[in-house]
Structures are given as C-alpha cells and as structure tokens.
Amino acid sequence: MKQDTCRLSSLPIEQAASAFAALGSEQRLTVLRALVRAGPKGLRMGELGERSGVTGSTLTHHLKILAGAGLVTQEKRGRSIIVGAEDYVRMRTLSDYLLLECCADAAPEKAHDHG
C-alpha cells in the first residue's frame, strides 16, 4: 500500500485538477465511461458516438479535452480513428486522489467513560 500512496502523493495538483475539470461535463463523463466499458481495444469514432450519444464535432471537441487531460488516446488505423481509455492506472490514481489522506486531520475519537 505504501507504493500506491507514494504514487498518489506524487501526482501534481495541476494534473489532478485538469483531469477532474475534463470530467466535469456529463457528455465527457459518458464518453469516458463508454470507453472504459469497451476495454483496452477501444472503439472506432462512429461506434463511440453511437454508444455515448455524442457525435460529430461535439464528440471531437470532448475527446480533445479528455486527451489533453491524459484520459484517452486516439490512434489512426487505416481509415478509422480508434479511441481508447488505456491508462487505467492513471484513472485509478485519479479516483483515489481525493481519499488519499482521508480523515488525516480529524481529531481522534475519545473513548467515553461511562463508569
């Protein structure tokens, strides 16, 4: 667990903020969830649009933001563009980021003496 803590604490706050900001849109969150569900092979742009309900220039716009935050990758294969959410370690790091120091500053509970 110590290794995970070191990895999480080394995530610069700017990167965490950028990723959380990218996820601050219902459409971008829907797109990312569709990619996570698809697994490491990713999806063709058209298929991603069908699964997420986000298409055309709107999808392109949201993918640019997600890619800028390091949450998705895009790769041209032949005539297709494959989009993937391949960095699951980064996503786990982000999901754990807020809980890393959970309750660190909370006062310890005192035992009540009912005696």
Overall description:
- This protein is mainly α.
- The chain has one domain (2-97): Arc Repressor Mutant, subunit A (Orthogonal Bundle).
- It is 54% helix and 10% strand.
- The chain has helices at residues 2-9, 13-22, 26-38, 45-52, 56-68, 88-97, and strands spanning 43-44, 73-77, 80-84.
- The protein has a 3-stranded antiparallel β-sheet with strand order 1-3-2.
- It is elongated and about 70 Å long.
- The N and C termini lie far apart (39 Å).
The gist of it:
The chain has helices spanning 2-9, 13-22, 26-38, 45-52, 56-68, 88-97; strands at residues 43-44, 73-77, 80-84. It is mainly alpha-helical and 115 residues long.
User: Major beta sheet, specifics?
Assistant: 3 strands, antiparallel
What global shape is seen?
A: elongated
Helix and strand pattern = HHHEHHEEH
**Radius of gyration over C-alpha positions, nearest whole angstrom:** 19 Å
| Count of spatially separate domains | 1
Overall CATH architecture: Orthogonal Bundle
- CATH homolog superfamily: Winged helix-like DNA-binding domain superfamily/Winged helix DNA-binding domain
CATH topology: Arc Repressor Mutant, subunit A
**Helicity level, as a percent range?**
40-55%
Span between N and C termini? Answer: 39 Å
CATH class descriptor? Mainly Alpha
